[in-house]
Amino acid sequence: MYFVLLSSTYMRLWLLALTGIFIGLASSSAAAISLPEAQQLAIQYDPWQQTSSLQERALVADSSAAATLSDPVLSVGLANLPTDGFQFNQEGMTQLKVGLSQQFARGDSLEIKRRLILNLAARHPLLRAERQEKLKVMVGKLWLDAFSTQQRMHIIASSRPLFVQLSDIVEASYGSAQGRTRQQDVIQAQVELARLDDRLSALATERDSKLASLAEWLYEHDNYGKDLTLSDSWPKIDVPDAKILHLLQQQNKSQLAQILALHPSMLAAEQQIKSQLNGVELAQQKYQPQWGVNASYAYRDDDVNGNSRADFFSVGFSLDLPLFTNNRQDKEVESATLQAEAAKTEQQLLLRNLLAQALNNWQAAQQTQQRIQQFEQVILPQLAEQADATLNAYTSDNGDFGDVMRSRIAQLNSELVLIKLRNELAQYQVQLLYYFKPANFSVKQGDSATVNHAGDK
């Protein structure tokens, strides 16, 4: 019996060593990536940033083209050629005519159109800033999910020797035929060990899946298949400054709304409103007449007798008269005005949504923090005392082995719940930085060629 017990112990230690090696290889096969490094890599390899930059440059180029007059029109024609002989010098009115005409824009429509397009271009640096913060949140949550799974694997792996020891104790007690140990206790110990190994295997699959989802955002296409490992310690996540935290604690919605009005998404919406107001101005310019000038020179050949004929020069202007405005200009101005008002309403809804989400996020973070304190200060210490008490009772032949296993499993499960709560709290903190991190609310100088031009009006 002693030989069987010893062999069983060596076998479990061997399995434990393999488990430790498996986890160690998973965490050391490549350079570990921290949370800030993962966020910066996601921003670095985000193709949308380049797309937005190209679209901005295209709009800036388009604004220059929009502020330019249309090209003049050159016309060449042969006028009044007689059909009875088709001779150029037969009739005095036959002439070779060359003309040039130019149309001018209505009022200030060219300048207004230039400002409209520049305001659209000025949205892109703000959209890129918002995109970067969204990427930080999304990649941060993916990183934290993978990291928490990795931490749960460490907790289970570190708890496994205790369950091995409990299995050895119950086998030794059963083999010596002393105490109240039953065969079902031995089987229960073996089953719980098998379940523990199964949980490790399931968590390994879950971790690999989450690492694959995270790797999608961290590398270029040719490096997508490279190994990805995470750091071994919980990340230190920044918090908003003390003033913002105080406002959140006080639920001061008015001042929080003033701060959120500087959020990149709000500033991008403000640029959209400016462009819509430019559209109203542009529609109003259609009440102005559109002018045009034209000039032509007509050459005439000498007559059949050799007498010289005078050439002709003509000049003139044209304009349209916007007299019937009820169904055209008036409606276009009305449409542009309504679109501008709709953009203002969307901005107000965006602010309301940001404020509600930020407050909900803060409250959820506070409640999660309280749960973490409850687990750390009350639940886990009491479960540890309960586990020790049941084990002491069992070794003193005054308790049941099932109670020992249940108390240890409850302790392990509570430790895993604590990992989950810490993950949730970290994700709330990452999300909160999307709303209130000061770096969110500025665009670096030189990030856009439109920043200094779009604010003309």
TrEMBL record:
- What's the protein name? Transporter
Q: Which organism is it from?
A: Paraglaciecola hydrolytica
Gene3D superfamilies named in the record: Outer membrane efflux proteins (OEP) (1.20.1600.10)
The similarity annotation says: Belongs to the outer membrane factor (OMF) (TC 1.B.17) family.
Q: Which domain of life is it from?
A: Bacteria
Q: Which GO terms describe its molecular function?
A: efflux transmembrane transporter activity
